[in-house]
Design goal:
Blueprint lengths: L5 E3 L8 H7 L11 H16 L5 E6 L2 H10 L7 E6 L2 H12 L3 E6 L8 H10 L5 E7 L1 E2 L4 E2 L2 H10 L5 E5 L18 E5 L10 E6 L1 H6 L12 H8 L10 H17 L1 H22 L16 E5 L6 H12 L1 E5 L8 E5 L6 H17 L8 H12 L13 H16 L1
Parallel strand pairs: 1-12, 3-4, 3-5, 5-8, 8-9
Antiparallel strand pairs: 2-10, 6-7, 9-10, 11-13, 12-13
Helix pairs in contact: 1-9, 2-9, 5-6, 10-13, 11-12, 12-13
Length: 417
């Protein structure tokens, strides 16, 4: 098919050409005297991304799922009790891993489309006067439903109960996209990956660990081998790894962190929110459809899950978008399978790029019998973006009609001269 594939799944995301070029490196000796410079550069940069001074970053040749396992096995023991909420496919999978590893999981079932239930967590933790819970699990951004949870609120619930449980956070689809504060929020284990906001191919599991969690790994008895932090600590201290690292991805990660630093993390977060608001306008104002996220407080700035009318299969819309328009959209998972499609808007993205997803999704919906007004999605998104100032680095600020006239007159004068 002529033209490029437009990738709008919520991960893996588009890899900027700048990062692709950075990964085009010759293989090198990962035991050479020069290699530690690469390792130390990456670890310092990751501390900035996690916004931590106290945390210790780790990178594994794995996906984020590998770091889920690393977080659990390095701090907990068989039979330990953990608290977790299930409100989407990825919070469910983390719970499933806990159970497979032999942990006792207290599950709070939530409506899919909501996030971490802060009041329920607060009540449970206050009633746990014997401190049986050893860890609390929270999925910062639930990719399956387009929901972001309040991690600062989870920390507040722990502190109000004076509870010593560790706070584990899945920030796979939020790191580098949505404000994340490891130190300020008292996070003990933050789990992420390379293929989302960091704009890299999949292949790096990324973990940040608090001093408290590092101390726990000395007494934890869950079995571990590949993901043993002690092996990593010993090797990383001298700039090396206990096994062969993913070299091209590491060079790409350095370039990714440079790009995020140049834009400024606060500007990156503002850009994601600004773009996400335009997509939400397309869905709710343009197409007159509903989001999976039940309330505005749950809205994700990295992925929008679009609910389809009864009788319309999300799989049909996704297949039509791919086969006819060369557009890749995310599908519904588990409880929401077939009921929705997802537009990922994270990483390397701007307004015009996102217009491709909106227009392609709209054409696919029309082809599948969804009664939306042609052009309504792009119109609503465009109106939002035109009427709101773009974050720094995304483009020129919005100008009003009087300013536009001044620019037009000035341009004409230049042409005449």
């Amino acid at each position: 098919m002529a033209g490029r594939n437009f990738l709008f799944v919520p991960g893996p995301t588009n890899v900027p050409e700048r990062i692709q070029r950075a990964m085009m490196v010759s293989m090198e000796d990962h035991r050479s005297p020069n290699f530690p410079h690469l390792t130390h550069t990456i670890m310092a940069g990751l501390k900035d991304i996690f916004r931590t001074k106290e945390g210790t970053p780790f990178i594994f040749p794995s996906s984020g799922t590998g770091c889920w396992e690393a977080a659990l096995t390095n701090t907990l023991s068989p039979g330990d009790k953990v608290l977790a909420a299930r409100f989407g496919q990825f919070s469910h999978l983390w719970i499933d891993m806990c159970q497979r590893l032999g942990l006792d999981v207290h599950i709070v079932e939530c409506e899919w489309g909501t996030g971490v239930p802060l009041q329920q967590f607060a009540d449970i933790l206050k009633n746990d006067t014997q401190h049986q819970f050893k860890a609390v699990l929270a999925c910062h951004n639930e990719t399956a439903t387009g929901v972001t949870s309040d991690i600062a609120g989870v920390r507040e619930a722990l502190d109000d109960a004076a509870h010593p449980a560790l706070l584990f956070v899945d920030c796979v689809s939020s790191l580098g996209c949505v404000d994340f504060r490891f130190d300020d929020w008292g996070v003990d284990m933050a789990v992420s990956g390379s293929q989302k906001g960091l704009m890299l191919p999949a292949g790096l599991g990324i973990l940040c660990v608090s001093p408290k969690a590092l101390a726990m790994h000395k007494t934890a008895t869950l079995r571990r081998a590949y993901f043993d932090l002690q092996d990593m600590l010993q090797s990383n201290a001298t700039g090396y790894f206990p096994y062969t690292p993913a070299l091209p991805l590491m060079y790409g990660l350095i370039e990714s962190m440079k790009m995020l630093s140049e834009e400024g993390l606060d500007n990156v977060y503002a850009r994601h929110h600004y773009l996400a608001e335009g997509v939400r306008a397309a869905v709710t104002q343009g197409w007159q459809l509903k989001l999976c996220a039940a309330e505005a407080k749950w809205h994700s700035d990295t992925v929008t899950a679009v609910m389809l009318p009864a009788g319309i299969a999300g799989t049909d819309v996704i297949a039509r978008a791919y086969r006819r328009y060369n557009l890749s959209l995310g599908g519904g998972l588990s409880k929401v399978a077939g009921k929705l499609f997802r537009i990922g808007h994270l990483g390397d993205m701007n307004e015009v790029h996102l217009m491709a997803a909106i227009n392609g999704a709209e054409m696919a919906m029309l082809d599948c019998g969804v009664e939306v007004q042609p052009g309504s999605g792009a119109a609503a998104a465009g109106n939002y973006w035109r009427q709101h100032a773009a974050p720094s680095g995304l483009g020129a600020p919005v100008i009003n009609k009087e300013e536009h006239a001044k620019h037009r007159i000035s341009g004409q004068a230049i042409l005449k001269s």
